[in-house]
Design goal:
Layout: H1 6-22, H2 25-31, H3 37-60, H4 78-89, H5 101-112, H6 117-132, H7 134-146, H8 165-177, H9 183-216
């Protein structure tokens, strides 16, 4: 009996962590239309800090044989996040945002594994594949709730540069399957992916805490 592809192993091993990341009161309130644009902007801001760190690691690992297939400039989110923050907060957005403690922990971990290709792939998979999958449903709902259109507001969920999303995600899984890693390193990557989900879940938990007075009113 042949071994399942690594992309399937990774997905199955982290599915519970993925579901926990989605089952947060902040996202429920957001999807219910209970939050102001500024409270939504709190999440965009935390994504901004995380993606700046991840994309910095991406550029530094461009020549690595393990990481290189996952250095995909068409996915980079920083410019889109800047447009979104400008739309939400105006031209002075930089003075309106700061990383939460869980975001600082996440960023520190991304920076820590920036020289470990497997760790980079783990965080890359967690963030980008999440935004390419469930993030697309979130985008559609937020467009209805806030009236955002292309050009700012939910642009970080738009991946216009990669063509067909289903085709790209299949290609991404093929890149995971082709990773030149031994079993021990694959297990290490899976552990890091689970940690990445946990850290991202803690970011959402803090967002729920700071915005709860708004949607509890």
């Amino acid at each position: 009996m042949s071994e399942p592809p690594f992309s399937e192993v990774l997905r199955n091993a982290t599915w519970g962590d993925h579901e926990s990341a989605e089952d947060e009161s902040y996202l429920k309130a957001l999807m219910a239309g209970s939050l102001s644009p500024e409270a939504y902007g709190e999440m965009v801001a935390q994504h901004y800090f995380a993606y700046v760190a991840l994309e910095s690691a991406s550029r530094s690992l461009a020549g690595d044989p393990v990481a290189a297939p996952f250095v995909i400039p068409e996915l980079y989110r920083e410019e889109a996040l800047v447009r979104d923050l400008e739309t939400i907060y105006g031209s002075g957005w930089r003075s309106r945002i700061e990383p939460s403690k869980p975001t600082l922990t996440l960023v520190a971990r991304i920076n820590q594994v920036a020289t470990w290709p497997g760790g980079y792939v783990a965080h890359h998979y967690t963030r980008y594949m999440g935004d390419l999958s469930g993030g697309q449903f979130i985008r559609i709902e937020l467009e209805k709730i806030y009236g955002y259109r292309p050009g700012g507001g939910v642009d970080f969920y738009r991946f216009d540069g990669i063509g067909s999303l289903p085709r790209f995600k299949n290609d991404y899984r093929a890149r995971l399957d082709a990773l030149p890693l031994d079993e021990a390193e694959k297990r290490r990557l899976i552990r890091e992916t689970r940690l990445a989900y946990l850290l991202n879940t803690e970011v959402l938990g803090e967002l729920a805490r700071v915005t709860r007075p708004e949607y509890a009113a």
